[in-house]
């Protein structure tokens, strides 16, 4: 065959062959949405929580708080692709965890994720990384204003490996709770675990400086609203990306997310106005967060009217635990949870998980999972009450396991790190804040953090007066 004929034949075969960049199993629509959803979730952390944390704390802790979030985002990504993703979703290695191997090979990343999806593994790796990163950053909200940054640098990869990966594998992977717990997008895996772990770590790290604990005003209310906005809108990807396709469940999950969030915000705001006679901006943000958290375990699995009820409960029950029980009981007072992550995430996440076991509709469960392994929500278990009760039992069991594991493992991690470096900053550094830790300050206001130069003395030559006698 001449070279000219070979070239023509080769060109024809290439033209007739499927596009190698878009194999037959790949859906460009699903792929585009999944990457967009992942971007939404990433923006919740950077810049969302970076801005929120940097604004909600006292001015002297703005840099440190924001930097804890930024550092976590970077470190979690490297740990995730090197070992943690496979520990969370990879080959079965035991009832608690998968094999810790890396996810960096093109052969793996560009392969179809599952036969039931139309996405490459690369999409799922990055999407689940964004989930893992925000979990660690949410946890940090309990520790702002006093944790030694070097201790935090060690804490992040250890907690991701020993705690988050186990929770993800047992519920979402192939662990012992697989296909038992209804946790659509992370009410247990993300929010309950971050709230419990943050509260536990706050106990071991110790409280803020006494003056900071008594007087800790936010440094920028407007920026708080900006960071909160990234969280709220970013939750479109958080709950909208979990079905791994751009289908009906995705649409339902997104509208339910925003309905529940708006309801929760308004209920929290109303309680503040009734009890404290003032409408609190920070209170409204807290109510927004609890609504987002509460709907997460069942966002695509419940009806919109159920989302409204979940919003009413997420705006009132965490409000009560934070504003009443926290101030009333010594147990809560003994632990300095800086931003109240226990209430906004652990309480709201637990509430959402239990309500998902109550309100989950059987048809939506089958649309989402294509399996009949989950029992119907207890409210929809007509003729199958035993299955509804069993599912509610699994929801309680999952909450107990996630809580117990995080308390135990977080304590062990803190005790281990404490033997290497101090978990808490020195008292002198706690008095100064960012300038002592990083040598930087948040705002370059006149006289802030600057040492004014000593005034130079002007040397004025002595004036010599000569008395001259003038004739009269």
From TrEMBL:
Alphabetic keyword roster: Ammonia transport, Membrane, Transmembrane, Transmembrane helix, Transport
Tell me any Pfam family this protein matches. Ammonium_transp
Transmembrane domains' residue ranges? 33-54, 61-83, 124-144, 151-173, 185-206, 218-238, 244-269, 281-299, 305-326, 338-360, 394-417
**Record-level Gene Ontology MF annotations:** ammonium channel activity
Give the protein name, as stated in the record: Ammonium transporter
Keyword Membrane in the entry? The reply is yes
Among SUPFAM superfamilies, the record links this protein to: Ammonium transporter
Per the record's keyword annotation, is Magnesium included, yes or no?
Answer: no
Q: Which Gene3D superfamilies match?
A: Ammonium transporter AmtB like domains (1.10.3430.10)
Give the matching InterPro entries.
Ammonium/urea_transptr, Ammonium_transpt, Ammonium_transpt_CS, NH4_transpt_AmtB-like_dom, RhesusRHD
Source organism of the structure: Durio zibethinus (Durian)
**Location of this chain's protein in the cell:** Cell membrane; Membrane
- The segment(s) forming the Ammonium transporter AmtB-like domain are 33-443
Q: Where mainly located?
A: membrane
Which cellular component terms (GO) are annotated to the entry? plasma membrane
Which family does the entry's similarity section mention? Belongs to the ammonia transporter channel (TC 1.A.11.2) family.
Bilayer disposition of the protein: Multi-pass membrane protein
């Amino acid at each position: 065959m001449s070279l000219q004929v070979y070239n023509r034949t080769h060109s024809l075969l290439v033209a007739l062959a499927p596009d190698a960049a878009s194999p037959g199993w790949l859906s460009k629509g699903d792929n585009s949405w999944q990457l967009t959803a992942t971007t939404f979730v990433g923006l919740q952390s950077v810049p969302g929580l970076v801005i929120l944390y940097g604004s909600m704390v006292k001015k002297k802790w703005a840099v440190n708080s924001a930097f804890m979030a930024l550092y976590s985002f970077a470190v979690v990504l490297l740990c995730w692709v090197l070992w943690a993703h496979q520990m969370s979703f990879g080959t079965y290695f035991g009832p608690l965890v998968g094999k810790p191997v890396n996810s960096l090979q093109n052969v793996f990343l560009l392969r179809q994720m599952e036969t039931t999806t139309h996405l490459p593994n690369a999409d799922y790796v990055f999407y689940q990384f964004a989930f893992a990163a925000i979990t660690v950053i949410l946890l940090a909200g309990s520790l702002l204003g006093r944790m030694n940054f070097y201790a935090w640098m060690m804490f992040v990869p250890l907690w991701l490996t020993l705690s988050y990966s186990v929770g993800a594998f047992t519920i979402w992977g192939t662990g012992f709770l697989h296909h038992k717990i209804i946790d659509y997008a992370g009410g247990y895996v993300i929010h309950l675990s971050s709230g419990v772990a943050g509260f536990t770590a706050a106990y071991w790290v110790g409280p803020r400086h006494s003056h900071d604990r008594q007087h800790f005003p936010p440094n920028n209310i407007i920026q708080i609203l900006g960071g909160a906005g990234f969280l709220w809108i970013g939750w479109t990807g958080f709950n909208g990306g979990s079905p791994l396709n751009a289908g009906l469940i995705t649409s339902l999950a997104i509208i339910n997310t925003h309905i529940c969030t708006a309801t929760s915000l308004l209920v929290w705001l109303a309680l503040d106005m009734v009890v404290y006679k003032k409408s609190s901006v920070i209170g409204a943000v807290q109510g927004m967060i609890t609504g987002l958290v509460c709907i997460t375990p069942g966002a695509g699995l419940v009806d919109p009217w159920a989302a409204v009820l979940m919003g009413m409960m997420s705006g009132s029950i965490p409000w009560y635990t934070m504003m009443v029980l926290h101030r009333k009981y010594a147990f809560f007072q003994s632990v300095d949870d800086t931003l109240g992550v226990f209430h906004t995430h652990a309480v709201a996440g637990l509430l959402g998980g239990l309500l998902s076991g109550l309100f989950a509709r059987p048809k939506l469960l089958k649309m989402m999972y294509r399996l009949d392994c989950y029992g119907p929500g207890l409210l929809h278990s007509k003729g199958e009450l035993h299955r509804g009760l069993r599912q509610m039992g699994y929801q309680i069991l999952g909450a107990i396991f996630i809580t117990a594991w995080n308390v135990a493992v977080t304590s062990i991690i803190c005790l281990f790190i404490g033997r290497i470096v101090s978990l808490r900053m020195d008292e002198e550094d706690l008095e100064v804040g960012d300038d002592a830790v990083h040598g930087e300050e948040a705002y370059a206001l006149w006289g802030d953090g600057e040492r004014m130069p000593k005034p130079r003395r002007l040397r004025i030559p002595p004036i010599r007066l000569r008395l001259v006698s003038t004739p009269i």
